[in-house]
Specification:
It is a single chain. By secondary structure, this protein is of the alpha/beta class. Helices cover about 45% and strands about 15% of the residues. The chain contains 10 helices and 8 strands. Strands 3, 4, 5, 6, 7 and 8 form a 6-stranded mixed sheet that branches. The chain is globular, with a radius of gyration of 19 Å.
C-alpha cells in the first residue's frame, strides 16, 4: 500500500493491522495522484497489478470480477471496472450530472474500452512494465487517458468488466470549484498532449467534449441516465441546479486558464508520439 500523507497514522494503522501481509510504503507528501499510480507498479510484487483508491467503496466480488478475464483469456492484459458516485440528495444529484464518473451501465459482458479508471483497473505485470504509466505530466488528473492511448499504440486492448463496480465518494463542497477548474484545465492540456488541439477527438473521462456543443450533449445524455434510473430524483433538481451551474462555470474557467496559460512545450514530451 502506498501512502503520500493523505491519511492519518491512526487510519493507516487501522487499515494495515488486520492484514499483516500488507506492506506500507510512504511517499513524499507532494507526490501527485498520477505519480502515486505510476510508482505503484514498481512496488507491487504479484503477477497482476490492481489499482484502487481509499475513497472508493468496492462492491462484494469486485476483485474476483476484475481478475476473472485474466483467467479466461490469454490475450487480456488490462481490465477496468465501472466507477460512479452516490445520489443521496441535491448535492449528489448535481455531481451525478456533472462529475467525471458516469452511471453504472448494468451490462454483463466484457467489452473493449477506450480508457480506464485509475481507481478501478488491473494490469498484468508484464504489460505494466512494457508500457508504464507516464509520470510527471502537467495534469491534475488524466494520466490514465494518456496511458490508455499509449497502450493502444502498443496494440494492447483495454477491456471493461461492468460487474467490477466501485462507488466513489463525493468531493467535499469546499473542494468543488478547484476540482472542476482542474478538470477544465486538464481537458485542454490533454487535447494538446495527444495532438488534438481543436478538441475534435479527445474526450476526458466520461467523454465531456472540449467544445460547448459536445459538452451540452454529454450533459443531456447524463441527465437521461440519472433520471432513467430513478425518476423521483427530479424533486432534488431545483436545489441541485445552482451547484450544477457553479460546476460548469468552474469547468469553463479551467479551460480558459489552460488556453491563456498553456503548459510549455517541454512539459508535453509525448505529444508527437501520441498524435501518430
Amino acid at each position: 500500500m502506498l501512502e503520500a500523507g493523505d491519511c492519518s497514522p491512526r487510519a493507516v494503522e487501522a487499515v494495515c493491522a488486520p492484514f499483516p501481509w500488507v506492506t506500507l510504503r510512504s511517499l513524499p507528501r507532494e507526490t501527485s495522484y498520477g505519480n502515486v499510480k505510476a510508482l505503484s507498479g514498481a512496488h507491487a510484487e504479484g503477477e497482476i497489478v490492481v489499482l484502487c483508491d481509499a475513497d472508493c467503496r468496492y462492491e462484494p466480488g469486485w476483485l474476483d470480477s476484475i481478475l476473472k478475464p485474466f483467467a479466461e483469456r490469454d490475450d487480456v492484459n488490462v481490465v477496468t471496472g465501472e466507477t460512479t458516485t452516490p445520489i443521496d440528495g441535491p448535492y449528489g444529484l448535481a455531481l451525478a450530472l456533472t462529475y467525471v464518473f458516469p452511471r453504472f451501465s448494468d451490462e454483463r459482458e466484457v467489452t473493449p474500452a477506450q480508457w480506464y479508471w485509475a481507481n478501478n483497473v488491473a494490469f498484468s505485470r508484464s504489460c505494466f512494465e512494457r508500457t508504464p504509466l507516464p509520470p510527471d505530466l502537467p495534469l491534475g488528473r488524466g494520466q490514465n487517458i494518456v496511458h490508455a492511448r499509449l497502450l493502444q499504440r502498443s496494440q494492447e486492448t483495454v477491456w471493461r468488466e461492468p460487474r467490477a463496480r466501485a462507488m466513489h465518494a463525493l468531493p467535499q463542497p469546499s473542494e468543488l470549484i478547484s476540482r472542476f477548474v482542474l478538470f477544465g484545465h486538464d481537458v485542454v492540456t490533454l487535447a494538446r498532449l495527444v495532438g488534438d488541439r481543436g478538441g475534435r477527438e479527445y474526450r476526458l473521462g466520461v467523454e465531456p467534449n472540449a467544445r460547448p456543443i459536445g459538452r451540452s450533449q454529454h450533459f443531456l445524455q447524463r441527465a437521461r441516465a440519472v433520471f432513467g434510473e430513478e425518476p423521483r430524483r427530479l424533486i432534488y433538481l431545483p436545489l441541485a441546479l445552482p451547484v450544477v451551474l457553479v460546476c460548469m462555470a468552474a469547468y469553463l474557467a479551467g479551460m480558459a486558464k489552460a488556453y491563456l496559460i498553456p503548459a510549455p512545450p517541454a512539459a508535453l514530451p509525448m505529444s508527437t508520439e501520441l498524435a501518430q
